[in-house]
Amino acid sequence: MASRRKARILAFQALYAWEASGASLSDLLSFSWLEESKLGQFEDDVVAFSQLIIAGAIENVAAIDERIRAHLSHWPFERLKKVDLALLRMGTYCLLYQKDIPAQITIDEAIEIAKEYGSDDSYKFINGVLDGIHKDLVSDKAKSAE
């Protein structure tokens, strides 16, 4: 498994822990919620990339959640499954703030993680929301270039 995928899974798990337990940012970034033996299995670059996503997603959670809300047709934000919300926050953060990573890679990674950790239809839902956010960003960029 590629190191970026491992980092995204760690970030997703931290964002899930944050939503589920209200863990502090320092606890999340130190991975205190993870068994020490597991943390030792990750290379430094995996941990660093994961920390970047975690901190960025939490620092920008209001803007990220606003984007997610805009793409929830007929579904209240409060009813999102915690797994799906954590994946959407991670994916939306990457789409909005990690412009050096192609959007399709971000979306594909979120879909693959959803297939592994989400419910049967999570990946389709994640794909639809993130794709909509990406299309908005492309449209916004085109408008600002005019």
Q: Which secondary structure elements does this structure contain, and how are they paired or packed?
A:
Elements: H1 3-21, H2 25-30, H3 36-39, H4 44-59, H5 61-69, H6 82-97, H7 103-117, H8 122-145
Structural write-up:
This protein has 146 residues and is mainly alpha-helical. It is built from eight helices and no strands. It starts with a helix and ends with a helix. The mean pLDDT is 92.
Strand content: under 5%
How would the global form be characterised?
globular
Provide the CATH top-level class.
Mainly Alpha
**Average pLDDT reading:** 92
Strands, count: 0
> Low-confidence spans: pLDDT under 50, at least 5 residues?
none
Question: Do you know the CATH architecture?
Answer: Orthogonal Bundle
Number of helices: 8
State the order of secondary-structure elements, H for helix, E for strand. Answer: HHHHHHHH
- In CATH, what is the homologous superfamily? NusB-like
Short description:
With 146 residues, this protein is mainly alpha-helical.
Main attributes of the structure:
single chain, 146 residues, mainly alpha, N-utilizing Substance Protein B Homolog, Chain A, 8 helices
